[in-house]
Design brief:
It is elongated and about 125 Å long. α3 runs parallel beside α9 and α8 (268-278) runs parallel beside α9. It has helices spanning 2-43, 52-57, 154-163, 181-189, 209-227, 243-248, 262-265, 268-278, 292-307, 315-321; strands spanning 72-76, 79-83, 89-90, 93-96, 102-106, 109-110, 114-118, 121-125, 131-136, 141-149, 169-172, 193-196, 253-254, 258-259, 284-288, 311-312, 330-331. Strands 10, 11, 12, 14, 15 and 16 form a 6-stranded parallel β-sheet that branches. The protein folds into 2 domains: 67-136, left handed beta-beta-3-solenoid (Ribbon), CATH 2.10.270.10; 141-331, TIM Barrel (Alpha-Beta Barrel), CATH 3.20.20. 39% of the residues lie in helices and 21% in strands. The protein has 10 helices and 17 strands. Bound molecules: nickel (II) ion (NI). Nickel (II) ion binds next to β10.
């Protein structure tokens, strides 16, 4: 009987010890989990949607952006801040959202719409600082240029450029605009640069200073009436320049470093081959948008050059990132 009483006592003690143990472990777990939760919230700056399942199954890893991060412009107090895909606040420069969109932030706010030059890069900015096009100064670039248009194949070429978000420069003759107004409007609206190739494709070295200026002004006025912009660059017909021309022209003159001779051979394969063989970082490629074979070649040239890592840029973009231009000077390339 006494033995039995002792056994019951022992059993009760054992049960008490076990129950106390269970309670202690449970309390300890709760403490650890609370600590983790607060540590988690503070690292992620309150941007992670916390819930128990997430806390116990997925340890926080800032290197793995996931659906928990709300990126882009987020409300904070009475204003907003830009949060990138890593959950970090961006106060200055370029930020990327989790869905891969780039935004330009200036002093904590969206950058102004339009062209922004930042650290030798060009960013075109739309609403809320969203970057619609970027050109990086330290990456290779090529300027495709088309002369003697607007013409029959201009829009076919514009379609290809649009498909790849590539930009080019069109040196136009004022006398042809009336017949292809829509092509010129598209050149402007789609972000290309319209350059001056004189009103009637005149060899400028053969003209008087007065006539040189008249040739440029006529085309300039036509472009301004149609698009609201003035031409900033001249391509002298035939590339012909002398001191008289330099003195008469109040804008930079852009010749070329890669001559496809498309107007001469009228062969798409030859045009493509010449571009593949001779194009380097900073090259200016000469083609003609009145040639059917050129419109054909452009369908291969654009993906070929992009595939080789070149950015396809306007003369304006390339000159801005590669030292600029002076009125009356002639440029053949913009090698870094
Ligand atoms: Ni020409």
């Amino acid at each position: 009987m006494r033995k039995l009483k002792t056994s019951v006592k022992s059993l009760i003690i054992i049960i008490l010890v076990i129950v106390t143990g269970i309670i202690a472990v449970a309390l300890r777990n709760k403490f650890v989990s609370d600590t983790k939760a607060s540590a988690h919230e503070s690292t992620s700056n309150n941007l992670v949607i916390t819930n128990d399942t997430y806390l116990t199954t997925a340890p926080y890893d800032p290197a793995v952006p996931s659906k928990e991060v709300r990126s882009g412009w987020q409300k904070k107090g009475s204003g907003k801040v830009f949060i990138d895909k890593e959950g970090k606040e961006v106060k200055e420069g370029v930020g990327e959202t989790s869905d891969g969109k780039l935004y330009l932030v200036k002093n904590g706010k969206p950058a102004d719409p339009g062209m922004n030059l930042v650290d030798n890069n060009i960013f075109y900015v739309g609403d809320d600082g969203e970057i619609t096009r970027a050109v990086y100064g330290d990456k290779p670039m090529v300027a495709l240029t088309f002369d003697d248009g607007p013409a029959k194949y201009t829009e076919e070429i514009l379609d290809v450029l649009k498909e790849y978000n590539a930009k080019a420069t069109f040196f136009i003759n004022g006398e042809d605009v009336e017949s292809y107004k829509n092509a010129v409007i598209r050149e402007h609206n789609e972000g290309h640069v319209i350059g001056n190739h004189t009103q009637n494709h005149k060899t400028l070295t053969k003209l008087s200073v007065k006539d040189i200026r008249e040739q440029l002004k006529q085309t300039d006025d036509i472009v301004y009436d149609l698009c609201g912009v003035k031409t900033k660059y001249l391509r002298p017909p035939g590339g012909a320049v002398d001191d008289k021309v330099k003195g008469a022209v109040n804008m930079p003159m852009i010749n070329w470093s890669v001559d496809t001779r498309d107007w001469d051979h009228d062969n798409a394969d030859k045009t493509l081959r010449e571009v593949k063989k001779s194009t380097n970082d900073g090259s200016i490629v000469l083609m003609h948008d009145r040639m059917k074979s050129t419109a054909q070649a452009v369908k291969d040239i654009v993906p070929e050059l992009l595939g080789r890592g070149f950015q396809l840029v306007t003369i304006e973009e390339m000159s801005l990132l590669r030292g600029g231009t002076e009125p009356g000077q002639v440029y053949f390339s913009f090698v870094p």
